[in-house]
Amino acid sequence: MLQLREAAGISQRAAGGAVGMSGSQYGRIERAEVRNLSVEQLARAATAVGGRLSCRIYPEGDPLRDTPQVRLLGRFEHRLHALVPMRTEVPIPIPGDLRAWDAVVLVEGTRVAIEAETRIRDGQATWRRITAKLRDDLSISVVVLLVAESRRNREAIASVRELLRVDLPLDTRAILSALGKGRAPSAGGIVFL
């Protein structure tokens, strides 16, 4: 928030006053000094400087709680060459970051990230989530969007396919052919299984 406030050219007093809090209270929020800070307080403080609070919820505990996703990843793994290892739930290499790739395969020195989706509700949101991971994990060379075969999923992907084609040009046949032969795909792609 400090950067937003400074960019707006306003003081802590003005930012706090704009949303009904004192400048010192706003300053404590900005410096992360408030114990038991409520979401409502944080949202108000962000609004004061033209920001918008956005939150994500990450599951804790057993990372393989999604049985359909585990099955989808299993079907994919069975299509890999016997010498292509696959690891699941591979963390993004940033301390404290709870995001993970659903799977990563290492083939010919290339790290291929697999994002498995059993039900796509918003193709653009799915791709934004993947690109954020790519931005933060420079060890990944290729991404495969693995999608459970269904009419609904095909329709969701078809609605954004042209937007994804630049980054995910390959199709199921090309990706599975390369990985089945123990070769790295030449680019990312979308696989329906």
Describe the secondary structure blueprint for this structure.
Blueprint: H1 2-8, H2 12-18, H3 23-30, H4 39-48, H5 67-78, E1 86-91, E2 100-107, E3 110-117, H6 123-136, E4 142-147, H7 151-158, H8 161-164, H9 172-180, E5 189-192
Parallel strand pairs: 3-4, 4-5
Antiparallel strand pairs: 1-2, 2-3
Helix pairs in contact: 2-3
In words, what does this structure look like?
The chain has 193 residues and is α/β, with parallel strands linked by helices. It is 41% helix and 17% strand. The chain contains 9 helices and 5 strands, in the order αααααβββαβαααβ. It has a 5-stranded mixed beta sheet. 25% of the residues are buried. The mean pLDDT is 91.
Features:
alpha/beta; 9 helices; 193 residues; five-stranded mixed beta sheet; elongated
Unreliable spans are: none
- Label the structural class: alpha/beta
- Order of helical and strand elements: HHHHHEEEHEHHHE
* Mean pLDDT figure: 91
Helix segment tally: 9
Query: Could you give the count of β-strands?
Result: 5
Strand order of the largest sheet: 1-2-3-4-5
Report the C-alpha radius of gyration, rounded: 21 Å
Write a compact overview of the structure shown.
This protein is an alpha/beta fold. Helix content is 41%, strand content 17%.
